Amino acid sequence: MLLWKDRRLRLALTSLGIQYLVALLAVGAFAANTGNNLLYLIFALMLGLFLVSGVVSRRALQGLSLQSLEEGNLFARVRGGLRVRLTDARPELPRGVELHLELEGGVVEPSFLAGAMDEPAPVVVLHARAEQRGWTRLKSLEVRTRHPFGFLEKAWRLELDRPILVLPHPRTPGELLTTEPQEGPGSLPQAGVSSPEGVRPLRQGDPPARVHWKRTAQRSLPGALHPWVRTFEEERPKGLHLELDLGHWAPGRPFERELERLSGAVLQARLQRREVSLEVRGPEGTQRHREPTACWRALAVAQANGPVTE
């Protein structure tokens, strides 16, 4: 049902609204049959309440518009957040609305926005889950409200048709080989290091000169030596260099698992605050990417072009 010639605004009766209408018609029928003025008064009050519900819920959608939609890093088969920023022309207006996003090839959980918060640009986070990596589309945004009595639900629908990139699932990586000898799982102190900050267990690549022998003796069990090394205030973790040769992989599940392994390695490096780079070799040449987001996006659109094996 179209209201006020607004093709984006639609009206639907809720289950409570249907029950209320049945009671309203029953009171009206008894009033007409008996001629009881009290029943006529009750019928008029119930009808007025129903109409007020429609008008107030219509006002709860006024002044809202979409300002921007931030996709962030959305991984396949992982619950991630999509940030929807709205423009509220009347932030003092009481409103209670639900936001529903329609994602092609995935599911987005609805979220709730309360009004009268004096926030002209409210942000709502909706949790989404996509099934496959690569490009997909956000099809529509729908704002629904049952404010204030729950008799009527009004929905304001905005068609989006916006592309969104789903990153490969971050699988826990196994042993990663690096091609640059200066990179590894250890860490490097930056220039100008002055004083130690603390200690941590020894990692592969740590120089023996940084072993904290006193702390090692305190924390090692009898008969088992577990060295501890000093950490410094400006300590910088070593970087990680990854490679992907598209010509060595055929389309299929093994290639997808390799992308997921590399995606997990990028995530691990980001959590450890390590620099990460990715080199992708394909038919168009060699492409080099730095920083986690650029590496993830390159993996998300990668296509194997190796020979298909039976």
Backbone CA Rg: 30 Å
Going across the biggest sheet, name each strand in turn: 1-2-10-9-5-7
- Please indicate the percent range of residues in DSSP E strands (runs of 2 or more): 35-45%
Give the H and E element order.
EEHHEEEEEEEEEEHEEEHEEH
Low-confidence stretches: 176-195
Number of continuous helical runs: 5
Straight-line distance between termini: 56 Å
Give a quick account of the main beta sheet: strands, pairing sense, barrel closure: 6 strands, antiparallel
Q: Please indicate the count of domains.
A: 3
What global shape is seen? elongated
Structural category is alpha+beta
Explain what you see.
The chain has 310 residues and is of the alpha+beta class. Helix content is 25%, strand content 36%. It contains five helices and 17 strands.
Map the helices and strands.
Layout: E1 2-3, E2 6-13, H1 15-34, H2 37-59, E3 64-70, E4 80-88, E5 96-103, E6 106-108, E7 111-114, E8 123-130, E9 134-145, E10 152-166, E11 187-189, E12 196-201, H3 213-219, E13 228-232, E14 235-237, E15 240-245, H4 253-271, E16 276-282, E17 285-290, H5 292-300
Parallel strand pairs: 15-16
Antiparallel strand pairs: 1-2, 2-10, 3-4, 4-8, 5-7, 5-9, 6-8, 9-10, 11-14, 12-13, 16-17
